[in-house]
Amino acid sequence: MDATARVGPLSYELTDALLPAPAGNGVRMTGGTVALDRGDLGRYSFDLIHVVTSGDAATVPALFGSDPQLHPGPQGPLATSVLADQRQTIAGFRALVHPHEGYDLLAELGRSWYDAGLVARPGTATPGTYEHLSLVRRANDRDEVGLEYYRDDPRYGTTLLPYGTAENRWGIAWAFPGSWLKGAYQLVADNVAQANRAGVRFHANAAHNRLEVRVALSAYRQLEPSSIEDLTRTGFVEVQFLPQTGADATLGRVQSQVAYAAWHLDRDVLSIDFARDALRPEVRNGAIGDFVDMRYPQLVVQDRHIFSPRLIGVVGYGRYAAGGMWSTTPVGTRYATGYAGAEIDLGNGQQIFAQVRTFGLNGLPSIPGGPPPTFTERHSRSNTASRSRAPAAVRLFKGRDDAIGPGDSCEKDH
After folding, report:
1. CA dihedral 345, 347, 349, 353 (to 10 degrees)
2. Quick count: other Cβ atoms within 10 Å of Cβ 71?
């Protein structure tokens, strides 16, 4: 249930929500928001929510629950524990003001309090804090430059909601073993700065005639190390670097470079999209399996062509790689995809969308001495939609039924 009201420059919202969780689990969130909008004089808002989980205990990819365990393997020491009856309150304040013409100043401050019924070390819960400060200079609607500061405490917004299964909570090898990418944490957005991080982000957008360019650079550091002492404190979250079992825990750093460029022609939009993320340990203390040192470059090039007002075509190629060292395992994988598609407007509310994609993956085995992750895969799909009937899909499949051994490749058509 959600209720909103507006009185002059003030707006209000009250929420009482139940999560449609799996059988045996329940989540309830109550909260409220009040906002003051003064136009060019600024906008100010205050939020308060309270979340409670109930039902069966759940195994989670964190160490601060009861029965904490480390599971050694090629991905390093992955963590599990058991949680139940979580309680969290989060309060936040946000202010957006214009100190001068063409300038936007944004300040956000959050505070959270967390505890649970089943934890490894009762009485170790402490409040968490979130800070965000942004200054943006806007030359016009298309050109801007900005500098931001983020600080996301490891104890801020740490409730694990009962989504998913134990399998998808582990996640993909070499792609951040923390659970924030697995649907387990839902109370705060971490798409820019993740938990247990502090740092700065620079971004700039520019458009001149037919050229459009966007860039963003960021650098963050760990606030507290991934030591067993810290990870077993109630509510402590680390989403990327592995638990460290050595005597001297280290601090890691996360860097990211993102660039996008597009050339707008009369009938085409040619674009290139590049990103590179890096996880670096600050110091290697020599303890086996305590470090993550990875690079994630990715590149996508695309052409979007307008044949007519009723026919649009797209063709592109993307390449993604993960390389470096994860715990004791060297990592070197390369993933590529090529795609082509078209959208056709038949008139009278009918449209056809068709797409062909080819995937390929190769590189070092994720398990030392195991089979290499090598395969290719081709998909094609066609959808027809209209106002008078539901969308229809056509799929064809042809593949190999025999087992795939080391070095073999698998080809499929969908």
Report:
1. -20
2. 11
Return all residues near 312 (Cβ < 8 A) that are at least 6 apart.
304, 305, 306, 342, 343
The strand pairing partners of 333, in sequence order, are 322, 363
Q: Specify the pLDDT at position 357.
A: 92
- Closest by CA to 272, choosing from 306, 317, 307, is 317
Query: How confident is the model over 389-396, as a mean pLDDT?
Result: 33
pTM for the complete prediction?
A: 0.81
Residue type, 389: R
Sign of the Cα torsion 395, 399, 401, 403 reads negative
Which CA distances in Å does 92 have to 3, 35, 158, 387?
Answer: 19, 12, 15, 44
End-to-end Cα separation, the chain, in angstroms: 42
Q: Running DSSP on this structure, what letter comes out for residue 228?
A: H
- Residue 120 contacts residue 66 (beta carbons within 8 Å): yes
Taking alpha carbons only, the member of 250, 256, 248 closest to residue 282 is 250
